[in-house]
Amino acid sequence: MSEMTVDVSKVAIPVWVHVYWSESGKFKDNELIPFKKFEAKALAAAKHKAVGVPANQQYYGYYKTKVKVLFTSGDEYECRLDLALGDTTGFKNHAAQLVTRYENVEDDSAEQEYLIDCFKENYEFLKTVVWPE
Length: 133
Fold this sequence. Notes:
By secondary structure, the protein is α+β, with helices and mostly antiparallel strands. The protein has three helices and four strands; from the N terminus they run E-E-H-E-E-H-H. The chain has one domain (12-126). It has a four-stranded antiparallel sheet with strand order 2-1-3-4.
């Protein structure tokens, strides 16, 4: 049996998040925050947006948040998150939604070509991410 070696320089683990700006008061403009702490604050912001929302509504708006995620591999991923319980609760949730949507689009749908053009590179990168525990 041979040993498998992993080139750790190629492993993409999110470690930092640069928050450019956010409508949520949970973040400061141009804040650099450890990934795990960002995820906790993003979830708190998403939950906060749900406070006072009637039970028959999925969500009431969201906190637009522009971020750049920095990975151990040197890769960077920039996006805008819409933080709300019925929308996105953090970057890991955003990534999972993109991967699921990309994998489940119908082959003959009008949306397929758009998704392939826009998200193929993001999809392929996000599939390689190793999420911290």
